[in-house]
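Z., the sequence and structure:
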Amino acid sequence: MIHNFISGLFTLIYLVGASQAVAESKLAAYETHCAACHGSDRAGLMGPTLLPENLKRLKKSAALDVITNGRVATQMPAFKALISPETITQIVDYIYETPAEMPDWNDAMIRASRRDLATDTVRSEKPKFTADPWNLFLIVETGDHHVTLLDGDKFEPVTRFETHFALHGGPKFTRDGRFVYFASRDGWVSKYDIYNLRYVSEVRVGINTRNIAVSDNGEYVIAANYWPHSLVLLSGKDLSLIQRIDVTSTAGISSRVSAVYNARPRDSFVVALKDVPEVWEIHYETDKRTTNFKTNRILMDAILDDFFFSPDYSKVMGASRPLDSGQRGQIASGQVIDLDRGKKIADLDLPGMPHLGSGISWNYQDRPIMATPNLRTAEVSVIDMQNWQTIKRIDTLGSGFFMRSHENTPYAWVDVFFGPNKDKVHIIDKKTLEIVNTLQPVPGKTAAHVEFTKDGLFALLSIMEQDDGAIIVYDAATFEEVKRIPMSRPVGKYNVYNKTHLSSGTSH
C-alpha cells in the first residue's frame, strides 16, 4: 500500500512538473515572438487582442495559418522560416487559453490611448467626390481588415481604407451622414470623415467590445464592453472620455454588455445586459453636456441580449436564452418590454432562437408586423406587432442570420447562413408571406447580408469568402445579376441613407 502511494505521489509530481514545463514553454514562445506587438498580457498593442473571447470567430486552424504564413495587407509577418511548427502550435494553444487574471482597461488607459488623426486643420464642408453622399455604401471587408466606400449609383469604389482588426457591431453614422464611427472587437473606436475621406480620431475603450451607438444630436458615442464590464461614454466630436460606467445590477452582480442602441425619438441609449435580468435606458441631454445622465433600470424575469424596436422605439422585443446553469430548463424565448411603463407586456413564441437584431418590419393586411430569421430552426418567424402573436412560420432551407428589405420593394430577402445550404438566399413576397424565389449566387460559397440602395431598386449581397469574396448587385425587381465586385470577405454593407433615415427594411 505504502509503495503504491509513494509511486502514485511521484507520478503526480512528475505530471504536475511536466504540465508546468509545457505552460512555461508556451509562455516563453509567446513572449519571445508575439508580446512586442500583442502585449505581454495579450490585450493588444500594435497588433490585436489575443484572448479567447476575442478569437471566437477565428478557428485554431486559421490562427495556425496566420502565424505560419502571415496576413496579407497587414503588419502580421510570416513565421514559418523563423520558428518551428511545434512552437507555432504552442503559441496557438496559449492564446486560446483563458489567463489566470484578465487585463484591466481603466480611465487613465482610455485617455492615454486617444489620438487625433486629422493633423491638419484644412477640411472641406462638402464631399471631395462626385458620388451622391446619401447613396454610399460602407462595405466592411474582414478578409484584410479594410472598408470600401462604394458609389451606390455606379457601383464603383470611391475609396478603400484600412481599419482595426475585426470590426464588430456595424458602423454608426451621424444623422447628416457625414461622419461614421467604427468599433473593433479589441476595443478601438474610430471616427471617419466621409466627406474628406480620412480618419478624425480614435480611442481604445476596452479589451473586448461589442458595439457602439451614436446619439441623435451627434454629441455622444457610447461603447458596450464584454471586458471590462462597462459602458464607455465618449464625446462625438473627438472621442475624448466623458464617463466610464461600471455595469453592475441592482443586486450587485457585475455583467457583460451585449449591445447598446440609440433610441432616436427618446433621446436615450438602451442597453442589453448579458449576465443579469435587467434592461437599462440611459437618457442623454440634448441642450448641454453633462455627466449626470438619468438611467432607468427595468427589472426582468429573464436575461435579454438581442433587441428589435418598434418604429417609435417605445417597445423593445428581446430574445432570451437558456440559463447558463442549465438546471431550470428553457426560459421564455422572447419578451416585449414597454419602455414608457418600464415593464414586460408580452411573451413571444420564438423557440428557434431568433436573431431579432436582424429583424425587419412592414405593414401586412393593414397591421404592423416584424419578421426575423432563427439561428436554430429552418424558418422565418412573422409576428403581429399589435398583439405580439406569431402569425406565420415560413419554412426555409436552413437557419438564417440576416434579413433585409426596403420600403420601395415588395420583397424581403433572407439568407440560409448555417448548414449545407449556406449558398442559398430566399426571396419572400411581403404581401403573401410566401417564398417566391431562391437564388444560388455561387455554389458552395456563403451568400448573406443583403442591403438595398437608397431608392430600393437594387439589392447588394455578400459572398463571404476571403480569397474569392464579392459583392453581387441584383435588380431588386427581376432578381437578375447586374454586377459583381471582387472583395475580401465582405461581411456587411451599410447604405448611408437607409441607416440614417431608419429604413424599416434594415437594422439601425
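The CA atoms of residues 169 and 211 lie 5 Å apart. The chain has six helices and 33 strands.

Let me know what you think.
H.
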